Task: structure prediction
Amino acid sequence: MTAVASTLPTGQTFETAIAEGRRAYELDRKHVFHSWSAQAKIDPTTIVAAEGSYVWDGEGNRLLDFSSQMVNTNIGHQHPKVVAAIAEQAATLCTIAPPHVNAARSEAARLIAERTPGDLNRVFFTNGGADAVEHAVRMARLHTGRYKVLSRYRSYHGGTDTAINLTGDPRRWPNDYGTSGAVHFDGPFLYRSAFHAADEQQECQRALEHLDRLIALEGPATIAAIILEPVPGTAGIMVPPAGYLAGVREICDRYGIVYIADEVMAGFGRTGQWFAIDHFDVTPNLITFAKGVNSGYVPLGGVAISDAIAATFAGRPYPGGLTYSGHPLATAAAVATINAMEDEHIVQNAARIGADVLGPGLRELAARHPSVGEVRGLGVFWAIELVSDPATREPLAPYGGTSPAMNEVVAACKTNGLLPFVNFNRIHAVPPCTVTDDEVREGLAILDTALSVADRHVVQ
Result:
């Protein structure tokens, strides 16, 4: 890792930034309680500056951000149009209560509704993705008069009460209880098939049969909704086989079940379409979103609502709300982000990068490194599945945990200037949608070195 200029993008000298970073770290360890962590066992990285596809750590080292932080800085760091829009909005109207109309919220809702599929014409704004899921489920339950909600194992839907119970990864376990109404099922994932399938077509068919059978056994009249990430993110970026999401849509229609597409991570350009569901020609009843809607510059999420579900609350109050629903600073950032994505062809760039640079580059790495069991993804949304035994597909770290081998791989990434997104035995290659060809090649070269470390742990 190298410092490439005498000053940071902020204009600070490295010496000043490093001193401030060390002070920030000291205060963090004394006073900040970190999410998903054993507090005494973590050593968090200090970030003192960011610009475009790069961040600078507390020692002044530049890192290529192949994590997009929490897979949310879709337009990169410090995009000048969005920063300016936030400042302009702050000078005009910093905040206003949600019962009142404000121009930023109205325009953000229009821009989102123009890009959602079908008749999802209304938007309820939240503070982030987890509470978007909470409200989507509440809408579905009130609309149908039913309680159960189905979600897949290997999924993530958020850290709040209902959302964490719907989540299918191990973070659910300490928060799980039997009265949440959450029922889990296996989704399609051919590399680690639960259905002993031989190919994608068979995986799709058997996964749909499994879901249909589960609904029959649970009682169709008890199920309010099925919630699915069109392309599951944190759980592994498993692109569903052709026909699967259309099959889920047909099952929902047959039983009167609301179909919720969780686009919190996959939406707003990440897969090379405005929404991941657009790859599959399927229209859900509700879409949850957050993250990329304004690149995470100000917290914002929401639910895009179909006309039929919106009509349920035309004459009866919707029993839910948030003090900061459609906050002017957040929605002004969303307006600027969506307009920048349109004007600068950022969604198209994500699609091109995935098809022409990132996807082919990852497949070339997979062909050379025995530690890579599979690479998979769309746009700038890719996973590298690491294994210790290619024959048995034994993961390099256990499900729900890490390993010394994975720790070595992650250290090799950071030492050589790459900030990765890591989950269990996987590295996710998820740079901003604005990433350039040269930046992707830089990231691939660093991954090449790190995968050589992983190769040392492969059974010979």
